[in-house]
Amino acid sequence: MRKTTFFFLLLLFSQVAGAQLPQGPYIVTTAQYGDFNASPLDAMKEHVVKVFKDGYYITASFGNSFKPFRGSSGGRYSVRDGKYVETVQFSSWDTGLVNRVLQFDYKLTPDGFLQKGIINTGSYKNHYLLEDYKKIEPPVPLQNSQLEGVWMLKSTYWDDADPFLNPIEEIKIYAYPRFAWAQYNAVTREFVGAGGGTYRFDGTNLVEVIEYFTYEMALGSEFKVEVRFNDDGTIQQTSWGGRMVEIWKRAN
Which has more pLDDT, 11 or 231? Predict the structure, then answer.
């Protein structure tokens, strides 16, 4: 009886240990979207970066000289029954994906992640997707890791007024050396905007180097933010010379 229990626990542990989740930023090296095969040369011309953190992800396609920002999507992710599973919360490519649960075959290695499967929506019928990612390693150590994680916008003010006409939800992920954020309508889930790039943080001063941005911002510029950690666990980010004040709370 004890031997049977031991082998059962050993099997259970091996299954749990095998269901590891990707964490951090990854970049596509090769891919296939329907009938289109993206070669390493294509991946150099246009980047697809996926940032995973604590059960949330944001994907963005950008960098093409003719179309600097192509699109973004994101939501929750997990591994269930041997499949990589995404629950889509927003998508600039296809609103039909919102609230859909997608399952993929996957392979996770110490320096890479691969996902492949079929997507079926109004815009994409039996659409084959394969993405082979390489993990993005930081060039230098992060000075302060307090921002690492997933944050949800609690409130925002521009010159003491709410800048949005409609209620929005905004998610922001810090997974060094990258960050990514996205905005979408809180009611309709319609995509609003996105941005991302690399970041550095010393505990007070945050610098985000912009690689894609759907609002007016020079690509490659350094966006400087003052960060304050509040006693209730939220953070305050102040930018644009004090005109923009954002309060963020950690995602559940």
Answer: 231
pTM (2 d.p.): 0.89
Nearest to 131 by CA among 177, 172, 182, 73: 73
Contact in structure between 97 and 91 (CB atoms under 8 Å): yes
Name 16's Cβ contacts closer than 8 Å, sequence gap at least 6: none
Least confident of 38-52, 206-220, 227-241: 38-52
Token digits of residue 183: 């905005």
Retrieve residue 161's tokens.
Answer: 């007024």
Radius of gyration in angstroms for the set of CA atoms belonging to the chain, rounded to a whole number: 19
pLDDT tens column, 119-137: 998 788 899 999 999 999 9
Q: 4: pLDDT confidence band, cut at 50, 70 and 90? A: very low
Q: What are the backbone angles phi and psi of residue 54, rounded to the nearest 5°?
A: 50, 45
Size of the chain in residues = 252
Q: Determine the Cα–Cα distance for residues 44 and 26; give it in Å rounded to an integer.
A: 14
The token pair that represents 112 in the structure block: 């890479």
111 burial level (CB within 10 Å; 0-12, 13-18, 19+)? exposed
| CA atoms 99, 236, 252, 142: torsion sign | positive
SS3 245: strand
Nearest-5° Cα angle at 205, 161 to 249: 55
Reported as type and span, the H/E element at residue 8 is helix 2-18
Look up tokens 């075959």; give the residue.
105
